[in-house]
């Protein structure tokens, strides 16, 4: 029998595959309501790298930055140019830059820097969600003192109606990961020994 945390990790990963598949299917079948991803002026400074290649794959990946995701991708690409950009705190944009310049750097010449930033955000947020689900389960076991109830709570966490925000270019996944991890260590008493 697999350890319960491993089962939650598999469940969370499966939920991300399902959510992303449904999201991409909906984008293929329905015209997106938000058109903010197509409005992409060049950076005000020369901070950005060379222009992105104009390929259908690059455009499709870049168009996945919608709603607030545009405001997280823009500081990652151009820096904080406008006052309203400061509402979007720097952890996610800095993480996108780090991933785009290290792990996903070989993809930049093929897809372009903006598309790689968006791809980095999707990968980062989905990995962070899976880790957050594991901490959610571990915390639930501590609080509920019942593995079955903790597992049911984890299922609800993985398949909640707002689940698409945990897989998009939003800061919710990182926030959930750091919050649940911190609360877990406080409840488990490990915070005092660190």
UniProtKB/TrEMBL annotation:
Q: Where in the cell is it found?
A: Endoplasmic reticulum membrane
Q: Which keywords has UniProt assigned to this entry? A: Endoplasmic reticulum, Glycosyltransferase, GPI-anchor biosynthesis, Membrane, Transferase, Transmembrane, Transmembrane helix
Topology in the lipid bilayer is annotated as:
Multi-pass membrane protein
Q: Name the principal localization, coarsely classed.
A: endoplasmic reticulum
Q: Which InterPro entries match?
A: PIG-V/Gpi18
**Could you list the residue ranges that cross the membrane?**
6-26, 86-104, 116-137, 174-192
Family annotation (Pfam families): Mannosyl_trans2 (PF04188)
Q: Where is the signal peptide?
A: none
* GO MF annotations in UniProt: alpha-1,6-mannosyltransferase activity; GPI mannosyltransferase activity
Q: In which pathway does it act?
A: Glycolipid biosynthesis; glycosylphosphatidylinositol-anchor biosynthesis
Listed EC numbers: 2.4.1.-
Provide the GO biological process annotations.
Answer: GPI anchor biosynthetic process
One of the record's GO cellular component terms: endoplasmic reticulum membrane
- The reply on keyword Transmembrane helix is yes
Function, in words: Mannosyltransferase involved in glycosylphosphatidylinositol-anchor biosynthesis.
Q: Which family does it belong to?
A: Belongs to the PIGV family.
Protein name (Swiss-Prot/TrEMBL):
GPI mannosyltransferase 2
